[in-house]
Amino acid sequence: MSDVLAEITPLSERDCFHIVERHKTEFTYPLHQHKEYELNFIEHAPGVRRIVGDSVEEIGEYELVLIGGENLEHVWEQGSCTSPDIREVTIQFSADLFNGELLSKNQFASISSMLRRAEHGLSFPLGAIMKIYPVLDSLSKESGRFVQFLKFLYILYELSVAEGARVLASSSFANTARNPESRRVKKIKQYINDHYAEPMTLAELSGMVGMTPVAFSRFFKLRTGKTLSDYVIDIRLGMAARMLVDSTRNISEICYECGFNNLSNFNRAFKAKRGSTPREFRALYKKKKVVV
Question: How far apart, in whole angstroms, are the C-alpha atoms of residue 50 and residue 144?
């Protein structure tokens, strides 16, 4: 997207990662994207609004998010936060840090899976944050570079095995590769991505992979964590969010182009998933974009 700030990070080719710790009273950096992975920890900033792709949420006292999508726009903005001392620790590292061969090793399986999920932004629960907090708290002050890297690996590993991490941006908005999946799930997802604007039924989709509707419904939920109908709605809403951001089409046009046949239902579903109406969502993005 040409009107989102493309950040050039200070990460050196000679370093495994770049870490910076800041204390501030407000967030002023604009909506942006970069090719590096970013692990961002924020402390004492309740009320700050986090935007990652089409996910818009207000954060609490502690925040830890891993961003991995090269084209995934994100920003933390002040929102209703009035904290006089916000602490932020940002770690950025290249996708080349762990080459494909290393990530294929058994010892790196959980980290590899986490990095793939991070293509859509990954938010960690408080329990996971507290587990790695003592190490993260001292990371920027560690003078031994090799020891610092080992601590960084420890943080990544503990986060990769933590339960409750949430994917933030929808796949259709983030427009990044998905995790390796079974042939049947890939086939159905590709069909939905290509035909999201058209009517589709469980019987039709299950027939495409030679399964009964009941068996396929259970299979899809087991492999994706979502019912088929929820997945279709999420794809349609992600496409709608992308159109709201990238085009000047009116909202009713977007509604029907994304497979919804009722404007009221579209507005209701969008607000339930995004926390704002389509009109509010578009206005928020227009306000946060910067022409570069």
Answer: 33
Q: Can you tell me the distance from the alpha carbon of 50 to that of 42, in angstroms, rounded to the nearest whole number?
A: 11
Strands (E), the chain: 5-6, 18-24, 32-33, 37-43, 49-52, 55-58, 62-67, 74-77, 86-93, 122-123, 166-167
User: What are the backbone angles phi and psi of residue 167, rounded to the nearest 5°?
Assistant: -75, 135
Q: Express each pLDDT in 52-72 by its tens digit.
A: 988 889 999 999 999 997 778
What does the block give as tokens for 57? 């949420």
Q: pLDDT tens for residues 188-218? A: 988 998 999 999 999 999 999 999 999 999 8
* Cα angle, residue 245 at apex, residues 89 and 54 outer, rounded to 5°: 45
- For 46, the token pair is 């309740």
Q: Count of CB atoms within 10 A of residue 223's CB? A: 14
pTM, to two decimals:
0.72
